[in-house]
């Protein structure tokens, strides 16, 4: 057995932890509505795009295989957090506990919204990683900025197109859904663009530190090969 194929570096582990924290934090922050100028958003906007930036960094340095492991790890940890929150929400509170409404507002995620969130996250994240991987091969490793932005547009578009109809159809007027989806994609892409100078420096430092710059030539993009490293 080639142990290098079955292990991950400390740096990858740290990025994975940050990725999972971002996803879990986004779930909690989504419960607050915020305004950016005249545009209404959820609080998750301030942290969720970071998960796409991490996805870009991991796919660029370690390739699609490690990105696949990252995505499924994030999914599993987020599912565990949501499930534990839902179970705790269902357990009756103590007699002296008087904050059931507040706790339910944060952890009582409706099954429909939870399902929409999980499906949208997995598909959007894998689309993001796939576009990053294929563009890197096509461009011979050049134009990282372009593929970071375009992969985000592709991933966030899939995420929004899946999440909003599944989660909010029949709740939000049908005429408003396309605008909600559009603003999510536009603002999260702007977020990526603003963070790009930092992302470029981080990726360069990661490649130097790890001594890796993986190209997914002849890679299998089967998303179920979780432990194929």
TrEMBL record:
A cellular component annotation (GO) from this entry: plasma membrane
Main location: membrane
InterPro entries (alphabetical): YhhQ (IPR003744)
Regions crossing the membrane: 7-28, 34-55, 67-93, 113-132, 144-168, 180-200
Subcellular localization(s) per the UniProt record: Cell membrane
This protein's UniProt keywords: Cell membrane, Membrane, Transmembrane, Transmembrane helix, Transport
Membrane topology classification: Multi-pass membrane protein
Molecular function terms from GO: transmembrane transporter activity
Family: Belongs to the vitamin uptake transporter (VUT/ECF) (TC 2.A.88) family. Q precursor transporter subfamily.
Function: Involved in the import of queuosine (Q) precursors, required for Q precursor salvage.
Protein name listed in UniProt: Probable queuosine precursor transporter
């Amino acid at each position: 057995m080639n142990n290098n194929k079955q292990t991950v570096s400390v740096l990858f582990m740290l990025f994975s932890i940050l990725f999972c924290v971002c996803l879990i934090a986004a779930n909690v922050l989504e419960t607050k509505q915020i305004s950016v100028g005249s545009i209404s958003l959820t609080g998750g906007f301030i942290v969720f795009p970071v998960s796409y930036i991490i996805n870009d960094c991991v796919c660029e340095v370690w390739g699609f295989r490690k990105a696949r492991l990252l995505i499924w790890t994030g999914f599993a940890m987020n599912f565990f957090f949501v499930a534990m929150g839902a179970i705790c929400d269902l357990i009756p509170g103590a007699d002296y506990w008087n904050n059931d409404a507040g706790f339910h507002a944060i952890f009582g995620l409706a099954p429909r919204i939870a399902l929409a969130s999980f499906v949208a996250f997995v598909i959007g994240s894998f689309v993001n990683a796939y576009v990053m991987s294929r563009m890197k091969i096509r461009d011979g490793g050049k134009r990282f900025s372009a593929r970071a932005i375009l992969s985000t547009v592709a991933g966030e578009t899939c995420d929004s197109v899946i999440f909003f109809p599944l989660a909010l159809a029949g709740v939000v007027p049908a005429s408003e859904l396309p605008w909600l989806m559009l603003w999510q994609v536009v603002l999260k892409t702007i977020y990526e663009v603003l963070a790009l100078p930092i992302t470029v420096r981080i990726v360069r430092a990661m490649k130097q530190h790890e001594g890796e710059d993986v190209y997914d030539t002849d890679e299998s993009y089967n998303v179920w090969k979780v432990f194929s490293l």
